[in-house]
């Protein structure tokens, strides 16, 4: 059965291997900032829940991990009692570290040929993370209520008489000119009485008779 | 985690609601009207207008398209071509010929041009945009369409009145500032 991959029933869950949590996928993740905002209001809750070190007892690439375990892992565990530390020796394999967080995310990391101090720094970095994947922010702010006035709607500045009048309506639809036409000016002047020299032929003829 | 409540979901529907506008094309320039109608069709009158991602266009119901006007001799000089895809199958018709056959097609073609063709995004939503244009040659609108209309687009030019449109009273009462001299012979 060459070439056929049969996963054993005890296969490691897929989320152990996801690199999404570091944003290293070909297409980088994008989104809005998400944090456990309750954190620090009353007390601080460490978001890191579990660390698993997998290493080889003999291999050279695991040397740093072995040193770390000999000298620092007990101190780390005492300082952070909320974090479970698993140590899993396995023969002839590259050492790795899997960190699992409160929000369900987990992050897989290669520790090949790393020194003790490097591992310490990386572990400290992982411990202080929120567990959210590293992503490009689409916007620098995030709000659940973007507008206090309420969003615009198409009926916003529409005069209310439009609702009750029958369309087409001349008041609503007729063209409004910027300037007055000559006819309009003439009619207005005649109405005001400011136009003196009006000739009303029909009237004047009747008067003459 | 989203806070999309029933209220906010309804607010979203309200913001993106498509409005039905009425436009009376009586004595209106075809090409000037088409510019205005195309803006409403594409939703450019809205502040949320987005030419890339969103289609926020409105419906426009145009009445009296048989009464549209064209500048000076445009009815005579503007040619519309059609190709039947056979050899020698290209035919031309002047605007007035086309208008006499179908009183809505001149305005349709003018709006089709104004809706736009150059950017790809516009080209893709051209046919759904044109589907939201409802043209009627006279003032009769089907009741199912009339029930949707909620606003009116302002006309682009004044509707001119001829002497026949005025009553005799209005003609008599109109202020007269000059008169023919007594020896003037009216034809």
Automatic annotation (TrEMBL), chain A:
<dbReference type="InterPro" id="IPR036249">
    <property type="entry name" value="Thioredoxin-like_sf"/>
</dbReference>
<dbReference type="GO" id="GO:0032543">
    <property type="term" value="P:mitochondrial translation"/>
</dbReference>
<protein>
    <recommendedName>
        <fullName>Large ribosomal subunit protein mL43</fullName>
    </recommendedName>
</protein>
<keyword id="KW-0689">Ribosomal protein</keyword>
<dbReference type="GO" id="GO:0003735">
    <property type="term" value="F:structural constituent of ribosome"/>
</dbReference>
<dbReference type="InterPro" id="IPR039927">
    <property type="entry name" value="Ribosomal_mL43"/>
</dbReference>
<dbReference type="GO" id="GO:0005762">
    <property type="term" value="C:mitochondrial large ribosomal subunit"/>
</dbReference>
<comment type="similarity">
    <text>Belongs to the mitochondrion-specific ribosomal protein mL43 family.</text>
</comment>
<feature type="domain" description="Ribosomal protein/NADH dehydrogenase">
    <location>
        <begin position="57"/>
        <end position="130"/>
    </location>
</feature>
<keyword id="KW-0687">Ribonucleoprotein</keyword>
<keyword id="KW-0496">Mitochondrion</keyword>
<dbReference type="Pfam" id="PF05047">
    <property type="entry name" value="L51_S25_CI-B8"/>
</dbReference>
<dbReference type="InterPro" id="IPR007741">
    <property type="entry name" value="Ribosomal_mL43/mS25/NADH_DH"/>
</dbReference>
Automatic annotation (TrEMBL), chain B:
<dbReference type="GO" id="GO:0006412">
    <property type="term" value="P:translation"/>
</dbReference>
<protein>
    <submittedName>
        <fullName>Putative ribosomal protein L13-like protein</fullName>
    </submittedName>
</protein>
<dbReference type="GO" id="GO:0003729">
    <property type="term" value="F:mRNA binding"/>
</dbReference>
<dbReference type="GO" id="GO:0017148">
    <property type="term" value="P:negative regulation of translation"/>
</dbReference>
<keyword id="KW-0689">Ribosomal protein</keyword>
<keyword id="KW-0687">Ribonucleoprotein</keyword>
<dbReference type="InterPro" id="IPR005823">
    <property type="entry name" value="Ribosomal_uL13_bac-type"/>
</dbReference>
<dbReference type="GO" id="GO:0003735">
    <property type="term" value="F:structural constituent of ribosome"/>
</dbReference>
<dbReference type="GO" id="GO:0005762">
    <property type="term" value="C:mitochondrial large ribosomal subunit"/>
</dbReference>
<dbReference type="InterPro" id="IPR036899">
    <property type="entry name" value="Ribosomal_uL13_sf"/>
</dbReference>
<dbReference type="Pfam" id="PF00572">
    <property type="entry name" value="Ribosomal_L13"/>
</dbReference>
<dbReference type="InterPro" id="IPR005822">
    <property type="entry name" value="Ribosomal_uL13"/>
</dbReference>
<comment type="similarity">
    <text>Belongs to the universal ribosomal protein uL13 family.</text>
</comment>
